[in-house]
Design brief:
By secondary structure, the protein is mainly beta. The protein has five domains: 5-203, no CATH class; 208-304; 310-480, no CATH class; 496-627, no CATH class; 642-712, Immunoglobulin-like (Sandwich). Helices cover 2% and strands 44% of the residues. The protein has two helices and 63 strands. Strands 46, 47, 48, 49, 50, 51, 52, 53, 54, 55 and 56 form an eleven-stranded mixed β-sheet that branches. The longest helix has 13 residues, at 5-17. The chain starts with a helix and ends with a strand.
């Protein structure tokens, strides 16, 4: 064959376009080896993991990269050529340009590194969720087909999308796009023209632009007027309005662009089940009060630092724990911070240096002579954590919540996978942030109990005491995180009574309850010891037979002869008010009488739930007794000649005297339920069916009165 000048000209054009290199047809080439050179024939095979093919890529080939390949020259792929970078593949060409023309395409499941990237004509690029494309210098997109990004596309220089007059280019998907400079008239993730995107931004599926306010729930603050859903991938871009979260919001991924800020208000939460990325120059701020806290919940993974407020109340001791991995003692500079030493059953030395690492899940006591706002700053804790506990002395160990969100102590009972805490008793103890001056206490279970605002939901940054039964460790993981938090000042079941004393601007509470699984001794799963609060606050407790003071006292059964001592101490002579809650719903039909031995006063708690009295440091602290009986009034006084019994649901009265009489039946709350008249005879029967409980039956003649308690089943 003789080549004419026309043939030679066509051949030169094909070579320039990269469509003809050796004169061969298109081939499917697989990368082989490691760090193989792009233009070396020894780098490619015609089969996966096969022998050397002796070929190098040309413009219309199908190129599969499953290993590490080094691009060592500029390259154009065109026609119907395509590139597939598999999940284990890496195309590294930080000094060279890669151009896609014609109807070519690239699918990236692994990683691609280029100096320049050009996508034109009808070519397309798809970046999978596992894929990452990094461009050192610039990327130009003029393709008529959208670029699909489910993974990451980053440009260190300028990303120009849609500068061609032939049409508007587009990048879409659920992944992220970042660039130092955005240009062009095209659209990137619902933002158009993309030249409006602030320099250095991260762009994702749903983008905060903050045009009108700080309201997270206003569609006008989001590109495309789309409010994010629980499955959304969100990017926060620089705007005139900082986004503020009030309430509970959910998303999949969250990205904070450089220089941006996101605020979560107290009692609000942000839930993330994918990736959290916070640029080093961005800020995610958790706002907190003394009693209300923001929650950042991340079930996935993350990078970057958060900032969590801690409100310090002056002249008050509180328990604190770090929610971040790299907090130092300098957070509380010019304040008093120390740990608790179980072996010596007392507080350790104050931490003076400011560079002492605070250990996640360890609790500390903090005291400040003044009020202030301090900040924990660092990488948020979201892993699995454990804290060693000891029982060398009394077993008291001060631990803490390691997460920047609430955790659920109850979940250790209902969801054992969240906690491993078999080494400690059930109750937790921490200072009451509401100002009672005493400890909040909580015991989990189906009939959970608490005093002084104790809650199953342990706030972020909260330290708390546990009592070790034996040496061991407490382990916690993300399954203990509280996705929903309902804070209540009051927990009381109908098997319990709660006593509260108020005075001297402080208060305290104690609980008496009944559970058939408990005993009259101390039960690790049901009882809580009394821990005294501040000196000026009254202290209220019940006492066991051995004199142990109890905050929550659980007993297995109740009888009319049960008496429970209730004690109170105060450091000054004051007037106090005691109230009882739960008496109206108390499921046991016994009288409830509070005896004040100091004044010889008996209070019927069924009808009067409050009592005012004076108390001083010199007063007998064990002045009260709780009775489940009628202490004053009519007592049982049945004579040997009179018998009052319950037979088949009826009241049977037997006596030797055949006299007229009046029969009255009273409930244990003192209310009269029945009154009838008749003749006292050996077999007087008073109908009383369909009644259940304990009742007082009184029989009165013209000369005497008899009374007896009966139980009706």
């Amino acid at each position: 064959m003789i080549l004419t000048s026309k043939h030679i000209l066509l051949l030169l054009q094909l070579i320039c376009l990269g469509l003809f290199v050796t004169g061969r047809e298109s081939a499917k080439l697989y990368s082989i080896g490691n760090n193989s050179a792009w233009n070396q024939s020894s780098s490619w095979s015609l089969t996966e993991n096969g022998p050397v093919s002796g070929l190098v890529p040309q413009a219309n080939d199908s190129i599969i990269i499953g290993t590490s390949v080094v691009l060592n020259n500029d390259f154009t792929i065109s026609g119907s050529g395509n590139v597939l970078v598999k999940s284990a593949g890496l195309l590294r060409g930080n000094a060279f340009r890669f151009t896609f023309a014609g109807s070519s395409s690239m699918q990236c499941q692994g990683e691609v590194q280029l100096y320049d990237l050009i996508v034109g004509d009808n070519s397309s690029i798809s970046i999978a969720s596992t894929g990452k494309v990094s461009v050192v210098h610039s990327m130009l997109i003029n393709s008529q087909l959208p670029i699909l990004v489910a993974g990451k596309l980053s440009v260190a220089g300028e990303l120009n999308c849609g500068s061609s007059s032939t049409g508007e280019a587009e990048i879409t998907g659920t992944g992220t796009v970042s660039s130092q400079v955005f240009g062009g008239s095209g659209e990137i993730m619902s933002t158009s023209p993309c030249s409006l995107i602030p320099a250095g931004s991260i762009v994702s599926e749903i983008n905060w632009i903050g045009n009108v306010s700080s309201d997270w729930n206003d569609p006008l603050n989001w590109a495309g007027n789309v409010i994010p859903s629980s499955q959304s991938n969100i990017a926060i871009q620089n705007s005139i309005n900082t986004p503020v979260i009030s309430g509970s919001f959910f998303c999949h991924n969250l990205f904070l662009s450089p220089g941006t800020k996101l605020v979560i208000l107290p009692s609000s939460s942000l839930h993330i089940d994918g990736e959290l990325f916070i640029d080093p120059s961005a800020e995610l701020l958790l706002k907190n009060t003394l009693v209300e806290h923001a929650s950042l919940i991340n079930y996935g993974f993350g990078s970057g630092k958060v900032k969590s407020e801690f409100q310090v109340a002056g002249n008050t001791s509180v328990f604190v724990a770090t929610p971040v991995a790299d907090a130092l003692s300098g957070v509380f500079v010019n304040m008093y911070l120390r740990g608790f030493d179980e072996a010596n059953s007392g507080w350790g030395s104050y931490i003076v240096p400011t560079d002492v690492q605070l250990t996640p899940m360890q609790g500390y006591e903090l005291f400040s002579p003044y009020s202030a706002t301090r900040y924990f700053e660092g990488t948020p804790n979201f892993g699995n954590y454990s804290q060693v506990v000891s029982s060398t002395n009394e077993g008291w160990n001060l631990i803490g919540n390691p997460y920047p969100c609430y955790i659920d102590w109850q979940s250790g009972t209902r969801n054992p996978e969240g906690w491993q805490r078999g080494s400690v008793a059930a109750a937790i103890y921490y200072t009451d942030a509401s100002g009672s001056g005493n400890y909040s206490v909580y015991i989990p279970g189906s009939d959970d109990a608490s005093i002084n605002r104790g809650s199953r939901f342990i706030p972020p940054m909260q330290g708390f005491f546990v009592k070790a039964k034996q040496a061991g460790a407490i382990l916690v993981n993300k399954q203990a995180i509280a996705s929903e938090v309902t804070l209540s000042d009051f927990i009381l079941h109908n098997t319990a009574l709660k006593f509260k004393v108020e005075g001297n601007s402080y208060s305290d509470e104690t609980v008496v309850r009944f559970n058939t699984s408990s005993t009259f001794a101390f039960d690790d799963d049901f009882d809580a010891y009394k821990m005294n609060g501040i000196e000026d606050a009254p202290s209220l407790y019940t006492s066991m037979e051995d004199g142990t003071h109890m905050a929550i006292n659980t007993m297995p059964s109740l009888s009319s002869n049960l008496q429970i001592p209730i004690g109170i101490t105060s450091n000054s002579e004051k007037e106090f008010k005691m109230t009882v809650s739960g008496s109206s719903n108390f499921e046991f039909r016994y009288p409830l009488t509070l005896e004040d031995k100091a004044t010889n006063t008996f209070i019927d708690l069924r009808s009067d739930s409050s009592y005012v009295f004076s108390h001083s440091p010199l007063s007998d602290p064990n002045r009260f007794i709780l009775h489940f009986d009628v202490v004053s009034g009519t007592n049982e006084n049945v004579t040997s000649q009179t018998e009052i019994v319950m037979v088949d649901g009826n009241i049977k009265i037997s006596g030797q005297e055949n006299r007229k009489c009046t029969v009255e039946v009273f409930g244990m709350d003192g209310k009269q339920l029945l009154r009838t008249s008749g003749s006292l005879s050996p077999n007087m029967v008073v109908p009383f069916r369909n009644n259940h409980g304990i009742y007082l039956v009184k029989v009165t003649t013209n000369t005497t009165s008899y009374a007896r308690k009966l139980y009706a089943e």
